[in-house]
Amino acid sequence: EVQLVQSGAESKKPGESLKISCQGSGYNFAANWIAWVRQMPGKGLEWMGVIYPGDSNIKYNPSFQGQVTFSADRAISTAYLQWRSLKASDSAMYYCARQPFYGDPYSDSWGQGTLVTVSS
Amino acid sequence: QSALTQPASVSGSPGQSITIPCTGSSGDIGGYNYVSWYQQQSGKAPQLLIFDLNKRPSGVSDRFSGSKSDNTASLTISGLQAADEATYYCSSYTNTRTFVLFGGGTKVTVL
What we know:
By secondary structure, chain A is mostly beta strands.
């Protein structure tokens, strides 16, 4: 069974750094893209970009380029989403999802989400 | 780039069929069949319902179906059930650097 398990909720102050994780199991983690999706409180879904754990090839949505960093460690089947300096506007639920094909961008398995709260 | 356009809400009675439209442009929905639909129950992660316009993943009920006309994709739920109450999102590949667009979501209420 394909599973994506994300790290727990985080509460941070503006300006702090943060790295959240997404561990895959039940499939070849290195051979499938991992997408990151943001959902701000009470709002819809936003595709942030994808990473291919096999070679760490990354494609960012331009709206998020420079604001976040994707990385992956295929040895432990884990992808990461990182912020260098959080803002209050980064408060949201963040989902990782398996995207089997880069050119056909549907996501067939989702993590449970990581809630990030940024407040002074 | 603007999100795809969905109505904020749609409602129906048990057993009825409802259709949720999702309008884009020739650069996304109109030009490609890379349209997917997701169901998000309250407080849960989204789940894939439809991919490649009209394909269902294993385990998804055949009460859910997808179609497209010009720049508008549609999700039809037939035989509406109380368990179908959720928010539904469409998504499409776009030939811009954004690469993937989502709709704003449609809340389905079963009367």
